Predict the 3D structure of the following.
Amino acid sequence: MSHQLFEPWLFNEITPSPEQEEALQAHLATCQECRQIRDGWLAARQTLQSARMARPAPGFSERFNASLVERRARESHRRQIRNLILGLSLGLIICASLMAVVIFTSTSPVSLLVKTTDAITRAISFWNQAENVVVAALQQPVILVIWILLTSGISLLAIGWLITLWRISLHGVQV
């Protein structure tokens, strides 16, 4: 037997029409499954209606309001950071666009490429000359001793820093 017609009437809070009610009662008289569904639903609804409202834990409202303020502050902070990043990004894009327009309207791409290559070549040449000066200076015995002492001191500081990090990770921070 088909129960699809009668199940919505069993669970519906709206009273069915007299014809629907009569058909439902006739069906319930013959169908054990639908009677069980109706009885179970009525019992569940009665339990829900008679259940006592649960009370929140003491101080719930204060904790909720405090956390709400914190959550709103975090969200406001995130929004400010997002707006800052967006503004800086847009500013960078606008500046780069303006710079490209100025560069390409004032010079040709070929002369720009030549000037850029010349600047890179000069920078590499300067770096090579500075490297030669530093290497020549380091070959002096006094400067070599200072260099060894300086690198030894930096190495000892790095070792001390690593030991400190290791101890903090092992024992935690003690105030």
About this structure: The two ends are 76 Å apart (CA to CA). The chain has a mean pLDDT of 83. The chain has three domains: 7-50, 79-110, 123-175. Residues 123-175 form one domain.
